[in-house]
Design brief:
Protein name: Signal peptide peptidase SppA
Shape: elongated
Radius of gyration: 42 Å
Largest sheet: 8 strands, mixed
Order of helices and strands: HEEHEEHHEHEHEHEEHHEHEHEH
CATH superfamily of the largest domain: 2-enoyl-CoA Hydratase, Chain A, domain 1
Mean pLDDT: 80
GO molecular function, one term: serine-type peptidase activity
EC number: 3.4.21.-
Family: Belongs to the peptidase S49 family.
CATH class of the largest domain: Alpha Beta
Number of domains: 2
Enzyme class: hydrolase
Helix content: 40-55%
Number of helices: 12
CATH architecture of the largest domain: Alpha-Beta Complex
Oligomer: single chain
Length: about 375
């Protein structure tokens, strides 16, 4: 430490040599960096190299800085590529998982989904479920129910084939297919076919039940509704108010007679009513063939009205009031039944439910046929 007061006031010792006190005023507090402000030229001097470096050294320093920058850039690119590969691998594994699930479900339905393989030897009821809307794209479709009927019919230890019904009806074609198969089995006469109606067995569901040897229902079950319905909308005035032009090209003058954006004239209405009436007549004839003289003479039976199980007894629509448990005790002496309805594999249930929800959300769900039982 020097004793010269002039030196203490005028200069300060630093790493680069003496610095004048006037120069220290240049190192002001920088509010952006929260550190000393670097005078012009100082930063450039420090980044370009140390004092006394020659041109070759400076070029080498610049080259190293460029290499470091390049390393950082390459590192970022490699990191992004690794992320992309991870996502690709994830989606590939997800796709593989879906394929494996579908394959497993298919193998299960082919080799293990068969209750007839392990049919019990003791007497029991052979149950076939008719649950929900009857349609080709629903679990209550003709192919599935007919397969269950034949499984239960072929089971030697099954004392009776029981249609366990809880359905509001549905497709005329699907209902007629099931009806015809029940009538075919019924004519063989080997074992009774009994329909047990739970909450509802109406319209197409009652069509199926009418083919059975006997119909059992709860006193508060809903049965009947023997009729045919077509429902639609007319938007011709709405489309005119919106200023939208409807363009429909057809080959055949009546091809678009049910177009909701065109008025339904008298001739088209008369024709369509004839189709409904003929289908209704087929419904009535099949119910009469199945129920025979048990039906009452009341004209209201075929009017489309729905009745309680207790009212159905009076009209001949139902043979007796009871339940599945009571029927099992009467037929086999205890509560014992086996479900012969082919089960849906998990993947099919998932895709079916997903498709139904998506169609309902998008508003594009429509029945396969405009006529409904």
């Amino acid at each position: 430490m020097s004793d010269d007061p002039t030196r203490q006031e005028g200069t300060q010792e630093g790493h680069d040599g003496p610095v004048n006190s006037d120069q220290t005023n240049e190192f002001k507090e920088d509010p952006w960096t929260e550190g000393p402000e670097v005078p012009p030229g100082k930063g450039a001097k420090q980044t370009s190299g140390a004092p006394g470096d020659d041109a070759e050294t400076l070029r080498e320093r610049q080259r190293l800085a460029q290499l470091e920058m390049m390393d950082h850039w390459i590192g970022g690119v490699l990191t992004e590529q690794r992320r992309t590969r991870r996502w690709k691998l994830f989606f590939r594994l997800m796709f593989l998982a879906v394929v494996l699930v579908a394959l497993s479900a298919a193998l299960y339905s082919l080799f293990w989904d068969s209750p007839s393989v392990a049919t019990p030897t003791q007497r029991h009821l052979g149950i076939v479920e008719v649950n929900g809307v009857i349609a080709s794209d629903s679990p209550a479709n003709a192919e599935r129910i007919i397969q269950g009927l034949n499984r239960a019919w072929d089971a030697e230890s099954a004392a009776a084939v029981v249609l366990h019904i809880n359905s509001p009806g549905g497709s005329p074609v699907q209902s007629q297919r099931i009806y015809a198969e029940i009538m075919r089995l019924r004519e063989q006469g080997d074992k009774p076919i009994i329909a047990v109606i739970e909450d509802i067995g109406a319209s197409g569901a009652y069509y199926i039940a009418a083919a059975a040897d006997e119909i059992i229902a709860s006193p508060v079950s809903l049965v009947g509704s023997i009729g045919v319905i077509y429902a639609g909308f007319g938007f011709e005035e709405a489309i005119e108010r919106l200023g939208v032009e409807r363009r429909v090209l057809t080959a055949g003058e009546n091809k678009a007679f049910l177009d909701p954006f065109q008025p339904l004239d008298d001739d088209a209405e008369t024709f369509w009513q004839g189709v409904l009436s003929q289908t209704h007549r087929q419904f009535i004839d099949d119910v009469r063939a199945g129920r025979g003289e048990r039906l009452s003479d009341s004209s209201d039976i075929f009017s489309g009205l729905i009745w309680s199980g207790e009212q159905g007894i009076e009209l001949g629509l139902v043979d007796q009031l009871g339940s599945l448990e009571q029927l099992s005790r009467d037929q086999v002496g205890n509560i014992d039944w086996v479900d012969y309805t082919p089960s849906l594999d998990p993947f099919e249930r998932f895709t079916r439910r997903f498709t139904e929800v998506a169609a309902e959300v998008l508003g594009i769900r429509a029945p396969n046929t405009p006529l409904r039982f």
